[in-house]
Specification:
GO molecular function, one term: DNA-binding transcription factor activity
CATH architecture of the largest domain: Up-down Bundle
Distance between the termini: 54 Å
Organism: Conexibacter woesei (strain DSM 14684 / CCUG 47730 / CIP 108061 / JCM 11494 / NBRC 100937 / ID131577)
Strand content: under 5%
Oligomer: single chain
Number of helices: 13
Keywords: DNA-binding, Transcription, Transcription regulation
Domain HTH gntR-type: 9-78
Number of domains: 2
Protein name: Regulatory protein GntR HTH
Structural class: mainly alpha
Helix content: 55-70%
Radius of gyration: 24 Å
Length: 285
Amino acid sequence: MAFHEVVRSPAYEQVAHQLREAILDGVLGPGDELPAERELCAQFGVSRTTVREALRALQAQGLAVAAGPTAPLRVAAAETLSLGPLRTSLVHLLRLGRVPLDDLVEVRCALEAAAVAGAAARRDPAQLAEARAALDAMRAVGSEHAHDAAPVGGEHTRDAAHARDARIGVAAPARGEHAHAAARDGSAPPGDVVDRFEAADVRFHLALVAASGNEAIQLMMLAVRDSISAHLHDALRALPEPRRAIDRLVRQHEAILAAVEAGDVRDAEHLLRDHVMGFYRGISA
């Protein structure tokens, strides 16, 4: 039988571990003030430097928060626990090539498809009203850009070539010659239009996820979506034929919400998958 050598962990890790266990076990509850540094030094028999390192570790994990630089540390409420560490890890893995973008997109698609299925089954009026308001905001941004943008030559011909069922559709490639041409002829959406459309899009999707009533899906969805948000943002800014693309995205959102409101679980899930995977296929084209 093989045994592993005993390794002593740094003192600050031992202090952080005990404090973390006290928080997770409920000995220290949400909003409770952590003991002062001097008291912790006395109880653990360690230096103030060690205590401070332990407290910084708790803050990095989102378990302890302070209202200001000189304010005392308090136990964070469960609903405010930061997803930062998970999001940061996913971003690093993505940039290092350890986790391909396609894999994270598949995870997002699986999570959100399950969420919209739950939302269609529950049909929570408040959350669906929030999704409807976000959809209205997307429509408003699209209408504004349609009025401001210059006409694009050959538009009717391309419309006929690209016409699709409003319920599905694959986003046009976000990069390449079409994207550069859009930027040259002034048809690319201004930055503020992209920002407002993106904000409404995020609001819509998060409202549907919240409507599922599944807290675990909500938390995981936030972390995964945030980790790939930069790719979404870049793709929206480089949209070729932006008016058509925005109109198509709005129609897809309309179809998804209509299926959810009708309680059609299967259709809602199918439309969501087509929408998400179609858009990211457009990014990588």
